[in-house]
């Protein structure tokens, strides 16, 4: 998920710079935006072919478990050059669905049991229990900083330690990168552009901007690493809470 790394190949796992920001600013991970940051980082940190495929335009919008296992198996066969074990693919599909799929209707249980994975709060996938089928949902609002993190990580510009050091590059709105970015947060390209425009309004055009160049719509971004974008998000939350207290 990008929260930890192994500096030495044979050494123990340690918190990454991104993980340290989360641990310091939201140690109990209660903020919805924290889970959006974690989701985006997991999708862009090369955590595994199965997870990235699941949130790509190649995955069907509606599916059942067996069809998803079949589709993922075909994808992994192409990528790896050999057919994966069926039980392995079934296990990966079950793990991802358990983490993300929101049961509809929700089962009656004690809220204190806390059995659901927090990633379900993003509402990216719904599990229609009556038919045992799954479908795309209408996700909860994503923080503007998570959009910046996502585009930086996908390579729209070179990540650096701070926005001041970042290299500003532009990407055409018609490019495949935005299709992938949109799929990661459960949106199509047009919806993603609208969210990016909202991010510009909130963060300022010096950080992210949606505009036109030679009649072509583009997104320009001031790049930074995941830890920097996460820090900006918590800074904004802190300023907002201070303003409300005043």
Parts with pLDDT < 50 across at least 5 consecutive residues: none
**What's the mean pLDDT score?**
86
Our measurement of the CA-to-CA distance between the termini, rounded to an integer number of angstroms, reads 36 Å
Strand content: 5-15%
The total count of helices amounts to: 9
Q: Strand count, sense and closure of the main sheet?
A: 4 strands, mixed
Number of discrete domains: 2
Question: What oligomerization state is this entry in?
Answer: single chain
Helix content: 40-55%
Q: In which order are the strands of the major sheet placed?
A: 3-6-5-4
Which of globular, elongated, flat, extended, rod-shaped describes the shape? globular
**What structural class should be given to the helix and strand makeup?**
alpha+beta
User: If you compute it from the alpha carbons, what radius of gyration comes out, rounded to the nearest whole angstrom?
Assistant: 19 Å
Order of helices and strands: EEHHHEHHEEEHEHHEEH
> What is the count of β-strands?
9
Q: Keywords, please?
A:
46% helix, 9 strands, globular, four-stranded mixed beta sheet, alpha+beta, 246 residues
Can you give me a brief rundown of this structure?
With 246 residues, the chain is of the alpha+beta class. It is built from nine helices and nine strands.
What features would you describe in this structure?
The structure is a single chain. It contains 9 helices and 9 strands. It is globular and about 50 Å long. The model has no long low-confidence stretch (mean pLDDT 86). The protein is an alpha+beta fold and 246 residues long.
């Amino acid at each position: 998920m990008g929260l930890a790394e192994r500096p030495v190949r044979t050494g123990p796992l340690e918190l990454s710079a991104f993980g340290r920001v989360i641990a310091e600013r939201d140690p109990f991970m209660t903020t919805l935006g924290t889970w959006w940051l974690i989701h985006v980082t997991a999708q862009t940190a090369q955590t595994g072919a199965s997870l990235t495929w699941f949130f790509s335009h190649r995955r069907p919008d509606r599916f059942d478990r067996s069809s998803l296992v079949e589709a993922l198996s075909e994808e992994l066969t192409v990528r790896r050059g050999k057919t994966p074990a069926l039980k392995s693919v079934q296990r990966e599909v079950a793990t991802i669905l358990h983490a993300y799929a929101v049961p509809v209707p929700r089962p009656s249980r004690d809220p204190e049991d806390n059995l659901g994975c927090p990633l379900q709060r993003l509402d990216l996938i719904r599990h229609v229990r009556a038919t045992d089928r799954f479908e795309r949902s209408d996700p909860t609002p994503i923080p503007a900083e998570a959009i910046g993190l996502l585009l930086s990580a996908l390579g729209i510009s070179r990540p650096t330690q701070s926005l001041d050091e970042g290299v500003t590059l532009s990407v055409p709105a018609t490019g495949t990168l935005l299709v992938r970015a949109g799929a990661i947060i459960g949106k199509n390209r047009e919806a993603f552009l609208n969210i990016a425009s909202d991010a510009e309004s909130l963060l300022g055009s010096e950080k992210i901007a949606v505009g036109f160049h030679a009649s072509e719509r583009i997104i320009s971004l001031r790049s930074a690493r995941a830890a920097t974008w996460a820090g900006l998000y918590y800074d904004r939350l802190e300023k907002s809470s201070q303003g409300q207290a005043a």
